[in-house]
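Illustration 12: 6-phosphogluconolactonase.
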Amino acid sequence: MNIDFVEYPDREMLALVLADKLASQLGQHLRTSDAASLCVPGGTTPGPVLESLSATDLDWDRVTVCLGDERWVDGDHKRSNSRLLRRHLLKDKAKDAAYIDLYTGDAEPDDAVTTLNTRLQPIFPITVALLGMGNDMHTASLFPGADHLAAALAPDAPPVMAIRADGAEEPRITLTAPYLRNAINLHLLITGPEKREAFERAQKLDPQEAPIRAMMDNLTVHWAE
Ligand SMILES: O=C1O[C@H](COP(=O)(O)O)[C@@H](O)[C@H](O)[C@H]1O
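Figure caption equivalent — predicted structure in token form:
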């Protein structure tokens, strides 16, 4: 395990400093490469970080953005992670970024896997990946007890898989552990005492019980109360 745990005085400071860090890693990559990729989480936590990031100066027209996972609902559904991105990231200075939407409109996420694996191929290795985590220690849609968790954690997993779990309200599509973990820069954003305690517990567990454990080889954690 190689974990750098950064604690911030409050969530506002976390959002500003983390957005600046992500932008500077993307910018640094763009100094020597034509293109960069940014993978971000959905859920309730990342809004302020995404908001700050959208206002940051960067050659956004050379950046491709994707989510680490998507809930299989229409893009205007209140649980859509894409909806969060459109509201908080893909606007202002970041409006010129390319976006690979994981929701294809197919009836089931399983029907979209082949298409998405092809579409996503050019973004790997991800330049900057920001992960989230639930209190149950899931990250992206790698949930404890999910139907295909072992395959999604395996080193030979394809880039994306369809996944279903009791802890998830709807079927999901998720980037798999090797493609997230192999990001050039890997960060985790968590807030509140419950998630801090869950992260500490996960360090002693197996990835099958605590999927976030599969990301701890070279991870920077950003936490505020
Ligand atoms: O369902 C999801 O949960 C995690 C954590 O979300 P949060 O609401 O606790 O911040 C998120 O990272 C993931 O993208 C999302 O689909």
